[in-house]
Amino acid sequence: MTVEKAVHLLVHGRVQGVGYRAWLASEARRRSLRGWVRNRRDGTVEAEIEGEAGAVAQMIAACRQGPPAASVSAIDTAEIPATRATGFEVRPTT
Fold first, then answer.
1. Catalytic site positions
2. Residue-by-residue pLDDT tens, the chain, 94 positions
3. Per the domain annotation, does 86 fall within a domain?
4. Residue 62 is part of which domain span?
């Protein structure tokens, strides 16, 4: 039986204008994760990621690094109820 996990992420640092959203969406899809990612007007990147618990943990670890031009200073994480999302989408800035 697969253990599912869902998390909300708020990524701080130089994470806008460096391809972070597209990178995160690509990495999430590669790991068969579901959810969404978007920029926020305060300069952070926000995401909800759900899927197999080990893949979610690997994704959080990868997010601490991000794409080459990014500089992540912190990630706020919170476990959330799974939404049973399908696919992974890039949402508009909020």
1. 21, 39
2. 678 999 999 999 999 999 999 999 999 999 999 999 999 999 999 999 999 999 999 999 999 999 999 999 999 999 999 888 899 999 999 9
3. no
4. 4-78
Quick check: pTM over 0.90?
Answer: yes
| Residue type (1 letter), 37 | V
Phi then psi for residue 23, to 5 deg, are -65, -50
Domain with 15 in it: what CATH number? 3.30.70.100
- Let me know if residue 38 belongs to a domain: yes
Residue 7 and residue 59: Cα distance in Å, rounded? 11
94 inside domain: no
CA torsion sign for 30, 32, 36, 41 is negative
Is residue 16 situated within a structural domain? yes
DSSP state of 94: -
- DSSP H helical ranges for the chain: 20-30, 53-63
